[in-house]
Amino acid sequence: MAGSLLCSGDCRIRNVPLLADVERMGQVLSALGVRLTRQGDILDINASEITTSKAPYELVTQLRASFFAIGAILARLGVAQMPLPGGCAIGARPVDLHVRGLQAMGAEVQIEHGICNAYVPGSNGRLKGATIYLDSPSVGATETLMMAATLADGETIIENAAREPEVVDLANFCNAMGAKIQGAGSSKITIAGVAQMHSIDYSIIPDRIEAGTFLVAGAITRSEISLSPVLPDHLIPVIAKLREIGVTIIEDAPDCLRILPAETLRARDIETLPHPGFPTDMQAPFMALLALAEGDSLINESVFENRLRHASELNRLGADIRVKGNAAFVRGVPMLSGAPVIGTDLRASAALVLAGLAAEGQTTVQGLHHLDRGYDQIDLKLQQLGAKILRVGEVSTDAELASK
């Protein structure tokens, strides 16, 4: 959606989920003067007349990803005013990599009173190609700078770039609009700037984290589940770890996976890493799964420094988890027992739902506003699989829209 700002014509994006974050991002774009219409999973965006370069504070502070639009706005208009971002409280996640990259491309950037003010000096207002090294392979910084570079004057090279499938998908989206991006999916991305972009009709990739969550749902409830459409290549570390734990994963078709339950779940160690390592977004669901495995597991969260708060909530369900720093020591228990719990962030909420599916008795999960940020009607999908799950409150704006 941020990338659509690069195009002065119509963009049609297909396979767009009903998420609270999608709704918020749409509100951010609308505030900039962008026209959006939605039918089902199709989103039509027209950014031919961006009326302001200033994004609204009250929206950006709720959605971290909206900050990534600064690169596209700056490339398109030569000026951008973006409040510092919000989102889940899972760590510091500073935007200094974004800022330094834009400065390397010739932008003047100042942060005052919580607002990032950026402009491109000179008569033509175009960013300049540059070589940028990222201190860490940040997905957000990679995407922000890649978008900014598409309309820059000259060639930009991003070293130590993030390699996640979502980066590749964004590059493919931009290339379909006329950008010249090479190397996405590797640690070195090269972008040759172009003068303008053209209209596009594009289908985005399936969500690998949603797919992984449903694989864990099958494993934790000892159920057979088929998933489609998925891209198995995007799930290699998740599938490998599930197989180590004892679960059977079968590729029934190039875009279809089937999970067969294991009689016994085996304890295994996990360390989160940037792609292609084990994804940090799957850490919480796997903690719920390993809570029921035989033996002791060690989970090391190396990506974010504040992403183990769900451990204490899982313990309320009867899990045996000790946290020290960024490490969680999980001693498997025979069963979990239903209890009231609170989701502290997006993936933590999903993990508690999964644990509740496997627990004896009734579990009540609060914090659904987190869940609705990243899962499209997960309660209804689980109901279709036979889960006894009922939403009783905290319906998000998008969930309300979906029910109409």
List the main descriptive attributes of the protein structure presented here:
4-stranded mixed beta sheet; UDP-n-acetylglucosamine1-carboxyvinyl-transferase, Chain; 2 domains; 20 strands; 404 residues; disordered C terminus; alpha+beta
User: What is the overall silhouette?
Assistant: elongated
Class from helix and strand fractions: alpha+beta
Output the radius of gyration: 22 Å
According to CATH, the homologous superfamily of the largest domain is: Enolpyruvate transferase domain
- Please name the CATH topology of the largest domain: UDP-n-acetylglucosamine1-carboxyvinyl-transferase, Chain
Oligomerization category of the chains in this entry: single chain
Q: Would you count the extended β strands for me?
A: 20
- Relative strand content: 15-25%
> What does the main sheet amount to?
4 strands, mixed
Unreliable residue stretches: 87-92, 395-404
The helicity comes to 25-40%
Query: Whole-Å distance between the termini?
Result: 24 Å
Q: Total number of helical segments?
A: 14
Mean pLDDT: 93
CATH C-level of the largest domain: Alpha Beta
Q: Which architecture of the largest domain would the CATH scheme give at its second level?
A: Alpha-beta prism
Whole-number total of structural domains? 2
Q: Strand arrangement, largest sheet?
A: 2-3-1-11
What does this structure look like?
The protein has two domains: 3-203, UDP-n-acetylglucosamine1-carboxyvinyl-transferase, Chain (Alpha-beta prism), CATH 3.65.10.10; 208-402, UDP-n-acetylglucosamine1-carboxyvinyl-transferase, Chain (Alpha-beta prism). The protein is 32% helix and 22% strand. It has helices at residues 20-31, 57-60, 69-77, 96-104, 139-150, 165-176, 208-220, 236-245, 283-290, 310-316, 346-358, 368-374, 378-384, 397-402, and strands spanning 10-14, 35-39, 42-46, 79-83, 108-112, 115-119, 131-133, 155-159, 180-182, 188-192, 200-203, 225-227, 248-253, 256-260, 270-271, 296-300, 320-324, 327-331, 340-342, 364-366. A four-stranded mixed beta sheet has the order 2-3-1-11, covered by helices on one side.
